[in-house]
Amino acid sequence: VLVAEKYGLDWRLLPAISVRESSGGKAACGHNPFGWGSCKFGFESVDTAIVKVTTHLAGNHPNTDHYYEGKDVKAILQTYNPPSIVEKYADQVMKIMEDIENTSIDVATS
Fold this sequence. Notes:
The chain is an all-alpha fold and about 110 residues long. Helix content is about 55%, strand content about 0%.
Protein backbone atom coordinates (compact mmCIF):
# COMPACT_ATOMS: atom_id res chain seq x y z
CA VAL A 1 0.00 0.00 0.00
CA LEU A 2 2.80 2.42 0.91
CA VAL A 3 4.64 1.82 -2.36
CA ALA A 4 1.43 2.27 -4.37
CA GLU A 5 0.71 5.52 -2.55
CA LYS A 6 4.27 6.75 -3.14
CA TYR A 7 3.92 6.26 -6.90
CA GLY A 8 0.26 7.23 -7.22
CA LEU A 9 -1.15 3.82 -8.11
CA ASP A 10 -4.35 2.24 -6.84
CA TRP A 11 -3.25 0.11 -3.87
CA ARG A 12 -5.34 -2.82 -5.11
CA LEU A 13 -3.62 -3.08 -8.50
CA LEU A 14 -0.56 -5.18 -7.63
CA PRO A 15 -2.41 -7.52 -5.26
CA ALA A 16 -5.03 -8.10 -7.98
CA ILE A 17 -2.39 -8.76 -10.62
CA SER A 18 -0.71 -11.24 -8.27
CA VAL A 19 -4.01 -13.05 -7.72
CA ARG A 20 -4.55 -13.28 -11.50
CA GLU A 21 -0.96 -14.21 -12.35
CA SER A 22 0.13 -16.50 -9.53
CA SER A 23 -2.83 -17.20 -7.23
CA GLY A 24 -1.64 -14.45 -4.91
CA GLY A 25 1.97 -15.55 -5.01
CA LYS A 26 1.37 -19.28 -4.53
CA ALA A 27 2.76 -20.00 -8.00
CA ALA A 28 5.21 -17.09 -8.16
CA CYS A 29 8.26 -17.47 -10.36
CA GLY A 30 11.50 -16.24 -8.79
CA HIS A 31 9.83 -13.94 -6.22
CA ASN A 32 7.78 -12.57 -9.14
CA PRO A 33 4.09 -12.95 -8.18
CA PHE A 34 3.09 -10.49 -10.92
CA GLY A 35 4.32 -12.46 -13.92
CA TRP A 36 6.43 -9.44 -14.86
CA GLY A 37 8.23 -10.00 -18.16
CA SER A 38 6.31 -13.22 -18.78
CA CYS A 39 8.02 -14.60 -15.67
CA LYS A 40 11.41 -14.34 -17.35
CA PHE A 41 12.56 -11.99 -14.58
CA GLY A 42 13.16 -13.05 -11.02
CA PHE A 43 13.58 -10.67 -8.11
CA GLU A 44 15.66 -11.05 -4.97
CA SER A 45 12.50 -10.74 -2.87
CA VAL A 46 8.78 -10.06 -3.19
CA ASP A 47 9.39 -6.65 -1.61
CA THR A 48 11.83 -5.83 -4.41
CA ALA A 49 9.31 -7.04 -6.98
CA ILE A 50 6.63 -4.79 -5.49
CA VAL A 51 8.84 -1.72 -5.71
CA LYS A 52 10.16 -2.44 -9.20
CA VAL A 53 6.85 -3.41 -10.79
CA THR A 54 5.07 -0.47 -9.15
CA THR A 55 7.74 1.89 -10.46
CA HIS A 56 7.20 0.58 -13.99
CA LEU A 57 3.39 0.55 -13.89
CA ALA A 58 3.27 4.06 -12.45
CA GLY A 59 5.30 5.33 -15.42
CA ASN A 60 8.31 6.18 -13.26
CA HIS A 61 10.92 3.93 -14.84
CA PRO A 62 12.91 5.32 -17.78
CA ASN A 63 12.83 2.02 -19.68
CA THR A 64 9.03 1.74 -19.65
CA ASP A 65 7.62 5.19 -18.84
CA HIS A 66 6.48 5.66 -22.45
CA TYR A 67 4.23 2.60 -22.08
CA TYR A 68 2.57 3.41 -18.75
CA GLU A 69 2.90 7.10 -17.87
CA GLY A 70 -0.39 8.97 -17.48
CA LYS A 71 -2.64 5.95 -18.04
CA ASP A 72 -5.63 4.91 -15.96
CA VAL A 73 -5.84 1.43 -14.43
CA LYS A 74 -7.58 -0.18 -17.41
CA ALA A 75 -5.06 1.25 -19.87
CA ILE A 76 -2.17 0.14 -17.64
CA LEU A 77 -3.58 -3.39 -17.59
CA GLN A 78 -4.17 -3.41 -21.36
CA THR A 79 -0.53 -2.45 -21.80
CA TYR A 80 0.67 -4.96 -19.19
CA ASN A 81 -1.17 -7.82 -20.87
CA PRO A 82 -2.74 -6.68 -24.16
CA PRO A 83 -6.19 -7.90 -25.23
CA SER A 84 -4.51 -9.56 -28.22
CA ILE A 85 -2.75 -11.86 -25.72
CA VAL A 86 -5.46 -12.33 -23.06
CA GLU A 87 -8.70 -10.79 -24.28
CA LYS A 88 -10.35 -10.03 -20.94
CA TYR A 89 -7.26 -9.61 -18.77
CA ALA A 90 -7.95 -5.99 -17.78
CA ASP A 91 -11.55 -6.78 -16.87
CA GLN A 92 -10.49 -9.86 -14.89
CA VAL A 93 -7.92 -7.91 -12.84
CA MET A 94 -10.33 -5.01 -12.30
CA LYS A 95 -12.94 -7.47 -10.99
CA ILE A 96 -10.37 -8.83 -8.54
CA MET A 97 -9.66 -5.25 -7.49
CA GLU A 98 -13.38 -4.78 -6.78
CA ASP A 99 -13.40 -8.01 -4.77
CA ILE A 100 -10.42 -6.78 -2.74
CA GLU A 101 -12.18 -3.49 -2.05
CA ASN A 102 -15.38 -5.25 -1.00
CA THR A 103 -13.47 -7.62 1.26
CA SER A 104 -11.62 -4.67 2.82
CA ILE A 105 -14.90 -2.90 3.54
CA ASP A 106 -16.47 -6.06 4.98
CA VAL A 107 -13.49 -6.67 7.27
CA ALA A 108 -13.42 -3.04 8.41
CA THR A 109 -17.09 -3.06 9.36
CA SER A 110 -17.04 -6.44 11.10
